[in-house]
Design brief:
Layout (H helix, E strand, L loop, with lengths): L2 H15 L18 E5 L5 H12 L2 E6 L5 H5 L2 E8 L2 E8 L3 H13 L4 E6 L9 H10 L1 E2 L2 E2 L4 E7 L13 H4 L3 E5 L3 H10 L4 H9 L6 E5 L2 E5 L1 H16 L6 H4 L6 H21 L1 H5 L5 H9 L2 H42 L5 H23 L5 H24 L4 H41 L3 H12 L1 H10 L2 H26 L2
Parallel strand pairs: 1-8, 1-9, 2-5, 5-8
Antiparallel strand pairs: 3-4, 6-7, 10-11
Helix pairs in contact: 1-2, 8-14, 11-14, 13-17, 14-15, 14-16, 14-17, 14-18, 14-19, 15-16, 18-20
Amino acid sequence: MNIRQAKDYIKNSVNLYLKKDDFGEYRVSVVRQRPIFLLGAPGIGKTAIMEQIAQEMGLALVSYSMTHHTRQSALGLPFITQKVYGERSVSVSEYTMSEIIASIYDTMEASGKKEGILFLDEINCVSETLAPSMLQFLQYKVFGRHRVPEGWVIVTAGNPPEYNRSVREFDVVTLDRLKVLEVEPEYRIWKEYAVEKRIHNAVISYLDLKKEHFYCMEMTPKGRSFVTARGWEDLSEILMLYEDEQLPVDESLVGQYLRNDKVVREFTAYYDLYNKYKKDYHIGDILEGRPSVQAIARAREAAFDERLSLVGMLLDRVTARMGEVMEQAACLTDLKKALKAVGASAGDYVEPVLGLLDAQAQGRKKLLESLQSANSLSDADRKKHRSVIRFLEEGKKELYVGGVFTGTEAYGFLKEKYSQLVDRMKQDTARAGRELHALFVFAEEAFGQGNEMLILVTELTVNNISAQFIAAFGSPDYDRHNEELMLSQRSSDIQQQIAQLEL
């Protein structure tokens, strides 16, 4: 299965394991809660999907790599204590709490979340001394004498033996206590994640042309050669930083993240070409609705790979603008709720308003800390919470310095400050809409109703950001072209059906 199918399966399993009966007891007993074992090549996104699952389900997440653990750190340290059995006092061995289980309790304490996921990576690489204890842990959720708290589901992961010399193959007895999911890398699925995470468009555009370079693992005379999804994501981040600092990108840099000489050479050459396209076509002019005649003519006569790169660059710029609008909308929605509470307390005195602003800011900070402690905070939510906190704190400061005397005046000031943000969002929304329109106009002039238009409409449809923006604010161009393409597809399907009927 691919990584998205694995993600859906894990979410369903976690949801079922956390179901309770009428008495508040978990319907699936701890012993019968088989841990999930993700088996897949390194760097395909196993850790990333666990973070997504925790964020989407509102659960805490504790992650550990088992290669770093000895028997002592996993099970706890032994100590001697005295116990009395009948009338006889004897010395017995006990264990301190496992570092792993202690981390769960620490997370529960810091986040306030009582349910979560314990993710143990590289579980099939445990040391020889720890291996015998893993069987007991997988079935009974116990390390030493300490049990994983109820409400915590165990998910494990590991690499097949061909990728890791340290792998210890599980025997039948161990496998019989696991739910094994074999995961294969698939670019189409990773691309959805990449677009949402704002992976550098040069990476996505290149892989659209060279899907076979998304993931490869082979032996060469120089040793093992490989390219992974993790490598592409890390490369994307460093490319953005290098561009911000206007530093040159060469094969030496790319080779630090992609360990395949052929892929390094080809991507570096493509990256240089990608930047040349960006300059030659004047992307900003196209999205402002004033493409040059030369740009249209060149796009019309260009090879397919150049056209695809151009569409990718234009889409990247437009979706980035749409993303900013949707982030603003999420922040303003939360702020509106906060200001309504302020309005309810507004009266003759300003102090209750100041007190409420401070309380809301502190409450939001505690929520942010809780989500961070639980490792269940997405980048989008982090940005939203920080924006709300900044508005509340700045609002309180400006009211205090400005010498506003009544609660009603304070509320009026905050409403005006909020209205300014709404006006800014409206301006940004209008700009994003104009750029989207300009993109369609250019595509019509350069490509007509060709494959490039199909790619454009498809990408806008499957991209969560653009789909949300269009659903919220509309796009006549998108609606028209989407309908035309759907009609064309229906016509093609009917023709194929008729052809099949012919003798």
